[in-house]
Amino acid sequence: MTTTSRQVIVGKTVILEIDVRDARGNRIDADAQPEVTVIDSQGVVRRQSSSNDVIRIQEGRYRYAYTVPPTAPTGIWIDHWEASVNGFSTEARLSFVVLTASADIEVAGDQIGDDPRIVYSEAEIIGINILLGCLQNRLKNKVEVESTDAYGNLEYVECSVFTLDELTWFLKCSLSEFNQTPHFTDFTFADEFIYQRYGHIIVEGAFILAVGAQMLIEAGREFTITDNGITMNPPPLSTVLNNELSHFVNRHTEMLKYIKNSIKPRPTAFGGFRVLAVSPNYMRLRHLRQRRIV
Question: CB–CB of 70/106 below 8 Å?
Fold first, then answer.
């Protein structure tokens, strides 16, 4: 069992994550993979400082899965992270709680409303990042606005329309649609042809979902503002987005059918046995088994 919370039962695995941020509070990738040290509640170093098995899951976010030994002491453990950002070293001491097996009933099991437990493999992360780059460029999601800092200096602050979590879910839903239209397949983000050969259709499906989600928000903002005789009518962005949807949805569905009709997966859990050999003896055995003469 793996948990993304900061509580874990002895003998099970806890997911330890850390965000690396710059001086302005924006997440940024470290110069190299961060190193993590695990110290138990008695001050014993259970894992020496190392970057082994530390994976990058998003920009500036790193994850390490640690399995607590079954005989380890309970209490508050420390995960000490060390990283280098733009040549400067930084560190952070976080903590997680190790509980006894008797507390398994209290902490195990998901509750309605909890964040979903999703762990992507390294191959899937590579595919998702490639598709994310294409999707962000298509949506023009990386927007910066001009601002000034506390000292009056001019700076540009990132002002994205969609978060990375939202874009990842759009891609996941688009891949799900690809796997069920018009017949079922089991492709994942780890498959290279998904983000190479079929990358356009996956990104387009996520683009349609993103436009549909934003259209409702923009429609709620379109009301006339009048102040001291000056009237402002916001541009009808929801209408423009709706036109985009009507243009892309039908075409996207037809393209999915064309692509999937050229993919013939083997049946799963159903189908008939058919001998493709040309030998008459094989065909005769088949008819005998089915009690057929012809």
Answer: no
Residues 34, 82 contacting (CB under 8 angstroms): yes
Return the bridge partners of 75, or none.
98
- The whole model's pTM is what? 0.54
Which domains does the chain carry?
2-107 (2.60.40.1930), 122-261 (no CATH)
pLDDT, tens only, 73-131:
989 999 999 998 888 888 889 999 998 877 655 555 567 777 777 888 889 999 999 99
User: How many CB atoms lie under 10 A from the CB of residue 286?
Assistant: 14
Please state, in angstroms and rounded to a whole number, the distance separating the CA atoms of residues 53 and 58: 15
DSSP 8-state secondary structure symbol assigned to residue 113: T
Task: Name residue 158's beta-bridge partners.
Answer: 144
In degrees and rounded to multiples of 5, residue 185 shows phi and psi of -135, 175
